[in-house]
């Protein structure tokens, strides 16, 4: 297999990274994806850096057995806590969602006040703040952990419900008080709450989804490294999906979010890698 | 070490099982506990039977290296989905929380209508229903999964809050309509929501915490098998605690719930077992 025609590895702690996979499929339709979701050990956002790093390394070892030419860490928590160390040991390009998200937010804000909502682990890492202030030290960055958002998306019962509004208002209160004009959706589940978050923050606040910019950044990276797929769009791309728990729920979720089928999702034993 | 003086192994997917460990410490103070909390892979309640069984078997193998004389599965999900298969392969007594909980509920109800709140996996297994109807086929059992309760307890922000009341009212609505008079707290986290649940269900509904009956059942079992600790109470019991993620948050939680210190909690690599 020629290197250019090799697939892109994309991983997340579970379903959420499919919002990033979807953007890659839309923006770079010539590329083929091998996706891994760690559904047996989800969530990552409440766990320690040691554990997240160990899990991420296992997943990278698995993806390399699929001969991927590049890897996208489609999970904010793993991007925040594991990406830099993995990059040091890896010979292929690897990209997280945080740097692209930070860049677009820094370019979007008008009043210099950026809010970030994410998991506890991502917020505590302060990685978004570091990247944004590297770009422009004048910017103010306010982070807020929203631990219930992931279970709410996964359960599904309280979407478009006054109870979600009440919870979200509590989480967003501090960000509103700071009069942010830009809000980063710093967890791959959160774009699925977009309509609620947008309504509650009001039309003066721009929501930033790092997935969009990550797909663009990936395209630039592939081009720069001479890794773009040279086969034309007439060839059908067969994306493949792997998970660590049984695939039933993953397939349901994928069907609601992806433009392609994930019916052939396979379960693997990630602890062996 | 004489077998009677060996410790009791107690395990859970995380913190919740400490409510069971606490009951054992209270009711059988002569026994020493070795506790394992699978904090790197928590929660179990949204995962498949295959995965829960695999994780439970690894934990049992770990506890056996500590030469435990008996094991308590202090997790409703693992009790529902893994206990029977583990028991078939094990030479020491093992006890779950579901059978004791079912028994006390069947003895408590006056109108024959029992409600159960638990994780999705426990409710779907219908194990509580089977145990209760084995005791008395006339009893009606209504189960309701409450997926947000565990993350709410773990986050802590919404305890004693109108938002918790709103979520709980939604979950409890169907059970109230069925006019249950007994409610099993079918997840080891739920006793920590007891005051809210009790207030919302009203004084005509008795809440059943399986932890209490599990500790009683354990004492009966040890007596029957000649395994009761024969050393007197004058000897200081040093309970030990192990977790799969870094122990910081576990220690905080343990300090708020246990009558003893868990300061020396150690992290182990559970995937090696």
Structural notes for this entry:
2 copies of one chain form a homodimer. With 273 residues, the first copy, chain A, is an alpha/beta fold. In chain A, 45% of the residues lie in helices and 15% in strands. In chain A, strands 4-3-1-2-9-10 form a 6-stranded parallel beta sheet, sandwiched between helices. Chain A has a 4-stranded parallel beta sheet with strand order 6-5-7-8, sandwiched between helices. In chain A, helix 5 (98-108) crosses helix 11 (210-224) and helix 9 (162-177) packs across helix 10 (194-201). The mean pLDDT of chain A is 95. Chains A and B meet through helix 8 and helix 9 of A and helix 8 and helix 9 of B.
Quick rundown:
Chain A has twelve helices and ten strands. Chain A is α/β, with parallel strands linked by helices.
């Amino acid at each position: 297999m020629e290197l250019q025609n090799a697939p892109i590895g994309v991983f997340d702690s579970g379903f959420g990274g499919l919002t990033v996979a979807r953007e890659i499929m839309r923006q770079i339709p010539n590329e083929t994806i091998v996706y891994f979701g760690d559904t047996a050990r989800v969530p990552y956002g409440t766990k320690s850096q040691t554990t997240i790093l160990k899990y991420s390394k296992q997943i990278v070892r698995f993806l390399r057995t699929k001969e991927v030419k590049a890897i996208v860490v489609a999970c904010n928590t793993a991007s925040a806590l594991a990406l830099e160390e993995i990059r040091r040991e890896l010979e292929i390009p690897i990209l997280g969602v945080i740097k692209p998200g930070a860049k677009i937010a820094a370019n979007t804000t008008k009043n210099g006040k950026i809010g970030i909502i994410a998991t506890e682990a991502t917020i505590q890492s302060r990685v978004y703040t570091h990247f944004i202030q590297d770009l422009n030290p004048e910017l103010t960055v306010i982070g807020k952990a929203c631990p219930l958002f992931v279970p709410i998306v996964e359960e599904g019962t309280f979407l478009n419900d006054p109870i979600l509004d009440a919870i979200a208002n509590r989480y967003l209160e501090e960000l509103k008080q700071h009069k942010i004009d830009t809000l980063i959706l710093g967890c791959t589940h959160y774009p699925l709450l977009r309509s609620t978050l947008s309504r509650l923050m009001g039309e003066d606040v721009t929501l930033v989804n790092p997935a969009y910019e990550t797909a663009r950044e990936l395209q630039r990276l592939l081009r720069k490294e001479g890794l773009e797929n040279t086969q034309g769009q007439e060839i059908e791309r067969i994306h493949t999906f792997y998970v660590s728990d049984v695939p039933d729920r993953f397939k349901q979720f994928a069907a609601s979010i992806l433009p392609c089928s994930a019916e052939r999702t396979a379960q693997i034993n990630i602890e062996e890698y």
